[in-house]
Design a protein that fits this description.
The protein has 462 residues and is α/β, with parallel strands linked by helices. The protein has 18 helices and 19 strands. Helix content is 41%, strand content 20%.
């Protein structure tokens, strides 16, 4: 929408359009849709996968410890459906996100918001002709017909005379001018873990990047760009600590992308200013601990048994082949309670309120960016560019500056190696569209070491 202010035209073309695809394309001045394509315009839904039935069949017993009635990350292992609290929070979240969707589409397409809501609820868009007649798209046609339309707009006779350029090549056409003054953009993208790969936020590694930016005299301010559902409490706290050390030395701004929840919020809360998008999923201030007892699975399904020799009554506390005692559960729950108290205390310090105020909007509940602003969890509704602009203003930079990314970008050779790895993963017959989400969740269970500040990751909104 900011680009449209320039007065330059935006053209969009789509074949199979989800609601997310349509949301993006609706901002175009001219929108062509394939005459045999499809447009999903029926509202949002959240789908959560539950594993309790599987565990019952396999005789696996989960041991769960949590704080917060809304801390739903553990529900898939305890229930076969949503709890009333979880249903409440996601109903509220989806309603808010979809209201933003309808408001923005109504503005960009010049259609009444109430009419858009009716189109969605009554499933009035069944075929492309419906989308055209209802004004959701401007024309039904093929890509070459859109190109002809563009040529006419540009007063060019032949499509071949249009100088199309890919985004990849367009990026090469401009570069930041050299300047000694820099704004560091540090990316926290993925689950927060103590040890992991480039698809995750490794606590000590990201903390090191923040420290490097803080100690670099040419870096005048930092933007911490977060897209994470959280993860390890300890890893999150390592990052929070470096953010706290940076605050007061140079400006540090949190810029929230799609998700900055639980540990993702934790690492933001010490920043000078927190900026989120209207539909960012954030909050989820709560923690949990979890592991599983595999004794019955191993014994009854595989004939594997265990026996131990130990020096103390609780030396085998963290083994996965026996039940915990009530005393042991109380010890672990005490640690989880302490972690939650730490979370809300540090959040309160960052927000300038009492822990009791944070607790009222905590308990693991997730919020949209708009709701988070109303609840005092963030400072500003805005995007990445707004965060960079604020960082420049707060750093008192005068004149030119350039943006530097942390961590440093991979070399071409490293990218090639990554591509080879991806091809190997794709060749795995178990890595298919149907099984991949479930296998991903099982893999993530293995990474949940220690107390977790994590939002449920298996949530799919579409």
């Amino acid at each position: 929408m900011d680009f449209k202010v320039s007065g330059k035209m935006i053209y969009a073309y789509g074949e199979y359009l989800s609601e997310g695809d349509y949301y993006l394309a609706s901002a175009a001045d001219v929108f062509f849709m394939h005459p045999e394509g499809s447009l999903e315009f029926n509202g949002l839904m959240a789908n959560i996968t539950f594993f309790k039935g599987l565990f019952e069949k396999l005789e696996i017993k989960p041991e769960i410890f949590r704080v917060g009635a809304f801390k739903s990350a553990v529900e898939p292992y305890l229930r076969k459906d949503m709890s009333p609290e979880n249903r409440l929070q996601y109903t509220s979240l989806l309603s808010t996100i979809y209201d933003i969707f309808l408001t923005d589409v109504a503005q960009s397409r010049d259609i009444q918001k109430e009419d858009l809501s009716r189109y969605s609820k009554e499933l009035l868009v069944k075929v492309p002709e419906d989308a055209y007649q209802l004004g959701l798209v401007d024309s039904l046609g093929y890509k070459n017909e859109l190109k002809s339309f563009i040529a006419a707009d540009l007063e060019i006779d032949e499509i071949s005379d249009i100088n199309f350029i890919s985004y990849k090549n367009y990026k090469k056409s401009y570069k930041s001018k050299y300047s000694k003054d820099k704004i560091a953009v540090i990316y926290a993208n993925g689950s927060i873990v103590m040890a992991g790969d480039d698809t995750q936020v490794v606590g000590y590694k990201l903390a090191k990047e923040i420290r490097k930016a803080r100690e670099n005299k040419s870096v005048k301010a930092i933007v911490l760009r977060i897209n994470s559902p959280g993860g390890s409490l300890v890893a999150s706290d390592l990052i929070w600590h470096e953010v706290s050390l940076t605050k007061g030395i140079k400006p540090i701004i949190a810029s929230m992308a799609d998700v900055a929840a639980s540990g993702g919020y934790y690492i933001a809360m010490a920043c000078d200013t927190i900026i989120a998008q209207p539909n960012t999923i954030t909050g989820s201030i709560g923690i949990f601990g979890m592991w599983f007892n595999f004794e019955k699975l191993l014994e009854n399904k595989f004939g594997i048994t265990h026996d131990v020799v130990k020096t103390g009554d609780h030396s085998d506390l963290y083994t996965a082949t026996r039940n915990l005692t009530d005393f042991e559960r109380s010890v672990i729950q005490k640690g989880v309670n302490k972690g939650y108290k730490t979370f809300i205390t540090k959040a309160a310090k960052g927000r300038g309120v009492t822990p009791e105020v944070i607790d009222q909007v905590g308990s693991g509940r997730v919020w949209s960016g708009i709701q988070a602003l109303d609840n005092g969890l963030i400072d500003i509704i805005g995007n990445f560019d707004d965060a960079v602009a604020l960082a420049v203003t707060m750093s008192d930079i005068e004149g030119a500056y350039r943006i530097v990314n942390y961590p440093e970008q991979k070399s071409t050779f490293e990218k090639i190696l990554g591509s080879v790895t991806d091809e190997i993963m794709i060749s795995n017959p178990m890595n298919n569209e149907i099984m991949a989400p479930y296998l991903k969740q099982i893999k993530e269970l293995q990474e949940m070491k220690g107390i977790q500040a994590r939002m449920t990751e298996e949530l799919t909104i579409y």
